Amino acid sequence: MISFFRRHPACRVGAEFRFVNLFEEVTEYDRTFQLPFNILSCVVGSDPGAESYIRSNVTGEIYPHRDGEILFIPLGLPIFIHRKPDFRILSLHFTWEAFPGMDLFTGSETIHCLHSPDILKRVERYFAEPDPVIACYGLQSIVLELCLPLIPANRDHAERWRFAEIPKMVRRSVSARMSVADLAESAGLSVPAFSREFSREMHCSAKEFLQNELLARSLRLLHDPKKKIREISEELGFSSPYYFSKFFKRRYGLSPLFYRDSVSPLFPEEK
Description:
The chain is α+β, with helices and mostly antiparallel strands. The chain has 9 helices and 11 strands. Helix 7 (about 230-235) crosses helix 8.
């Protein structure tokens, strides 16, 4: 008897999906963003004359908010948001990575406008789901369904980086005290040599990666209403709440306290 077995090349891909933020928003602001994660912005109940829009600062193209639409914004894309409180936004912020820091949409500069009332109803249903496990995996299935066709065909097919464990280590223990010099020491390289290799392989500087991961952890901690801003600042390794607020506002566009007061997270406490 002759048997034949051929492993599919997909077995070599260890893509990891991660929600950074899930929240409902009804607020007003004008803000410029360049965020380290992908966004699905789901518009619910917009008035016909609503003024709100998102503008790509790369192409200048404007995407008005219309009821029933879902906007996909890739990570790292500079955008301007003009938002009025005349509708609800269900926001899903996520990464989809070959390994930490190497997102499948890295380098993409296209905002996609999707119109699917059926999918939007499913998003609303999972936002209202009381069981966080069902809600999380239901929303994840929707994100994968919507975004799989949007993955750039010309993305890099880099082999596994020899220092791929370093981004994983950062994700486990990132703090404001962690420096590029610490990462270079872990890699056994000088800071300049490590910085060059990191930027070449990860398509961002080591400093940017540290700040991106610190911001992601900050957002998760701010969803715990029991934690005071001072406690979060200490847990993240900042020398004072002032420096934490300064970092957060520079990266996210608003203060930690205003962020906490402005959004209603789907999962209020970090697990």
